[in-house]
Design brief:
about 375 residues, Rossmann fold, alpha/beta, about 35% helix, 13 helices, disordered C terminus, homodimer
Chain lengths: ~375, ~375
């Protein structure tokens, strides 16, 4: 079997072909199912690890592996380099996914994960909000208006009838362009540049995703909010990087996506163990009594879970296969004798391209670009 | 910048174009330099981690990250699935490398690592043997004659004037085909199917790389050897998997590639800490007195070091660039606005391919297959 490479070009072609709303709906549905069915005996998710460095620029590159027993291993690589947009015309968050067969170790796919990471982070917030925010939520607040804010709002509009969007960013240009960047999906909602104070006072649901510096949090001091406010805390992703003020966390019901991870790099690092609620999937799987959290102040501490990446990877691969998108390459899998690493050299002078050899390497002709055109 | 994908086809084309001997010579030279210059303050190499499973088949998939500060992050993925050759016509060891820019996190290359892993493991043994075996070594023994044995022998022939090759495998077909599989590189050496006893008695250098089961080691009991024998112990790569008998280890000078890793999954797991010598790179970097280890019984405990993978990746990428080989794809890096994940949808209906949009995704035309033809 060949390895499928889904590039940015392929990912964008899938979004164009399927439609960004339908894709988000499908992802929310699949992710909700994944949360409801998650079984740690079948799915191994070690705590992520990574390299962080301050030279030549501050950055972080993490690996997030997952084993779905008998099916796949997914390795997500994700980079966080906050100077990228300004200095390199690149997104802050870059990512790719490698998918392996868990019977043979064969590399089945390499998928550009940059859009998919923003997509799944949005979908996770939509699921948390469906579970924890009031069903009639109308006002959504965004603190931080970068790339993640776009998919946060998009996902929320698929689950709620959003009528007002209040948003703030410390960078005026980023705030100024936010409405424009949301045009591909937002219908009738009113966009209102707001202060953080107004956002906290008015919103039914808030998603916060900033690039606040390590050690510089929280992003704002505690202020009054709606009693039923639900917050998706998205930007905490590093030890000593957090966004929310401790008093607000202490009077909220806080549910992390992955507790051990959130205690290291999420909002939960501010909290004592006894102040942290169950993980979102556990709440969703609970069959017994659950208090009505929709009327309470709630925080979803979203540090990013590779289970979400697995769901979005499989969704896009399914569409790519159906649409015939992607580039197919041979990766270590094509051999007449797996014990003979140089078998392809047989019958040839190793120093020049003989006709025989040209034939034996002509499989490059089978590495065709599949595409819509 | 685009991401370069080097498939198996590209790797083979490089070997054909450059020649397998010259490539091995270049790798040995680069790797020797990498060992001599290795500085743990510049190069971070966390202990590898992985998933091991017994269902549906026994297997292991590991990740081996490396940070070369200011230059690259390399993520090596390597699978060990001993039933692959028999049940899936795939190599036991499959691997791929992902190379990232350590300033932006951008994915620069994805490289098929299966041949490269065998290649660098051979080169590492050649370097250890040059340092620890007698310069006039003529007799090389191979215990286990799978894919790794081929590159072990190849690398040793580039450093020593090998005249006799004694080899053994528990699987007769594997033993029977070994000489044939070495034809692309071996000149005048005599190949002799041998018993393990004979190999141990006769050899100046031995490389052992078997698929002995976990808990079933050692592969043989201690027997007499040449006083100056050097052993490259390649097959130990899992807790409770080891190949050499403890008494032989105890009377040898044992140098691991990576001590902490070798203590977990190499021959060193059999040894007390005080029985383990310095790491090979430390020996090579030592400027003060070093006893003449070439006359002693020595063991290189080669568990596989990602520094080796970094060297071989860069070597093949350099050749690929010069030869114009590889497939180039855009991975998350091409955006007129990095804060706008849906920017490519602008000016279009998201549900159909408008002419504008077809234009904006037509960059797929730039994802061309580069090749020799």
């Amino acid at each position: 079997m060949k390895t499928t490479v889904l590039s940015q070009t392929d990912i964008q072609a899938i979004v164009v072909e399927i439609g960004v709303d339908r894709l988000m709906d499908e992802l929310i549905a699949r992710l909700e199912e994944a949360f409801q069915n998650f079984d740690p005996r079948q799915t191994a998710v070690p705590v992520r690890d990574g390299f962080s460095y301050s030279s030549p620029r501050s950055g972080l590159l993490e690996w997030m592996p997952l084993l779905q027993t008998g099916e796949h291993v997914l390795m997500k690589m994700v980079g966080y380099h906050p100077r990228n947009p300004d200095l390199s015309a690149l997104p802050t968050i870059l990512s790719d996914f490698s998918l392996y067969n868990a019977t043979t170790g064969q590399l089945e796919a390499v998928v550009d994960g940059t859009l998919l990471t923003a997509f799944r982070t949005g979908a996770a917030s939509a699921i948390a909000s469906r579970f924890l925010a009031r069903t009639d939520s109308r006002v959504v607040g965004l603190i931080g208006c970068g790339a993640q804010a776009v998919t946060q709002l998009h996902a929320l509009t698929r689950v709620f009838d959003v009528q007002r969007v209040c948003f703030f960013d410390t960078d005026f240009a980023t705030m100024d362009s936010f409405e424009q960047r949301c045009r591909p999906f937002v219908g009738e909602a009113n966009f209102e540049m707001s202060s953080i104070l107004d956002i906290l006072e008015l919103s039914d649901i808030i998603s916060i995703a900033t690039t606040i510096d390590i050690g510089a949090g929280p992003v704002f001091d505690d202020v009054p909010t709606q009693e039923h406010l639900h917050i998706n805390a998205v930007g905490s992703d590093f030890p000593n990087k957090f966004e929310l003020p401790l008093p607000l966390l202490k009077r909220s019901f806080v549910t992390p996506d992955v507790r051990v991870q959130a205690e290291i790099e999420g909002e939960c690092q501010q909290l004592a163990s006894s102040d942290i609620g169950e993980e979102l999937y556990q709440l969703m799987q609970r069959s017994g009594f659950l208090p009505n959290l929709k009327q309470c102040l709630t925080v979803f501490d979203s540090t990013g879970w590779v289970l979400e990446d697995y769901a979005v990877t499989m969704l896009f691969l399914d569409h790519a296969r159906r649409l015939g998108l992607g580039t197919e390459v041979w990766m270590g899998t094509q051999s007449s004798d797996p014990k003979s690493p140089y078998v392809f050299l047989e019958g040839s002078e190793a120093t020049e391209l003989s006709p025989t050899l040209a034939g034996s390497t002509a499989s490059s002709a089978t590495e065709k670009k599949r595409g819509l055109s």
